[in-house]
Amino acid sequence: GQQLNQSPQSMFIQEGEDVSMNCTSSSIFNTWLWYKQDPGEGPVLLIALYKAGELTSNGRLTAQFGITRKDSFLNISASIPSDVGIYFCAGSYSGGGADGLTFGKGTHLIIQP
Amino acid sequence: DAGVIQSPRHEVTEMGQEVTLRCKPISGHNSLFWYRQTMMRGLELLIYFNNNVPIDDSGMPEDRFSAKMPNASFSTLKIQPSEPRDSAVYFCASSLLLGEQYFGPGTRLTVT
After folding, report:
1. Sign of CA dihedral B9, B19, B91, A12
2. CB of A4 within 8 Å of any CB in chain B?
3. What was the pLDDT predicted at B62?
4. Chain A residue closest in CA terms to B54
5. Which of A22, A73, B5, B31 is the most buried (most CB within 10 A)?
6. Range A71-86 average pLDDT
7. pLDDT at position B27 over 90
8. Is the pLDDT of residue A98 over 90?
9. Contact residues on chain B for A100, CB-CB shorter than 8 A
10. How many of the other CB atoms lie within 10 Å of CB of B104?
11. Is A42 touching B (CB cutoff 8 A)?
């Protein structure tokens, strides 16, 4: 099946630093979503992107839907301890996730105080 | 508002036993999805329903897996017979048609 390449696999950063992670695909998606998962919990939706080129912010988080529709990135500014977790990108072929999502393997974010 | 509800949160069973996982989607949502998460394969879609009708079950690994959605507020994922390689965290998610998916807390299944 379709695979999303998410990088980096893990990040070790200092509190206060900015974070950047991205996802690429070999085929086009019509919706990109970013989720965060804490241990023992389900993924929590952070940002949803529906249009190529779209740039969307949610507090300190900013995500973009690549122009080619084959990639997306997520930035976190001024990281804080509660940002620790696993971040997943996900793509949908439908306009909005009416079909199942294809997930990346995740980026483990670890913040050193 | 209540989110997606899954039960049980943890299930330990012996190989060969039948396992039933349950999901209550967010009220008003009309799409429901079952995913499986493992270290090796990450998050994978198993099956999804729109308006209680199964749309795509191509992700269901084997005939041992079956899913039903008898009404808009309840779905089950059944494994019969279970095998150790079925050990994983199983997530249910729901959405409005053409809307973002919201995940439940998951069921951690261990098959010994």
Report:
1. positive
2. no
3. 87
4. A99
5. B31
6. 96
7. yes
8. no
9. 33, 35, 45, 48, 56, 59
10. 25
11. yes
Distance from CA of B86 to the nearest CA of A (A): 18
Spatial strand order in the sheet of A61-65: A4-7, A19-25, A71-76, A61-65, A55-58
Instruction: Report the C-alpha dihedral over residues B86, B89, B95, B100, rounded to 10 degrees.
Output: -120
Question: Which string of b and e fits B3-24 if b means at least 16 CB within 10 Å?
Answer: ebebeeeebebeeeeebebbbb
Both tokens of B107, joined, read 């069921």
For position A25, what pLDDT does the model report? 95
Contacts with B104 from chain A: Cβ below 8 Å? 42
Instruction: Among B50, B91, B103, select the one facing A98 at the smallest CB separation.
Output: B50
Q: Which amino acid is at B85?
A: R
Q: Write down the mean pLDDT value for chain B.
A: 94
Average pLDDT value for chain A: 92
CA distance A92 to A45: 14
In chain B, residues with a C-beta closer than 8 Å to the C-beta of A105 are 42
Q: A67-99 burial, b for 16+ CB within 10 Å, e for fewer?
A: eebbbbbbebeebeeebebbbbbbbbbeebbbb
Question: What distance in Å separates the CA atoms of residue B99 and residue A45, rounded to the nearest whole number?
Answer: 12
Q: Do B97 and A98 touch (CB under 8 A)?
A: yes
**Taking phi first (over 0 means left), then psi (-120 to 50 degrees means alpha), and beta for anything else, what does residue A53 get?**
left
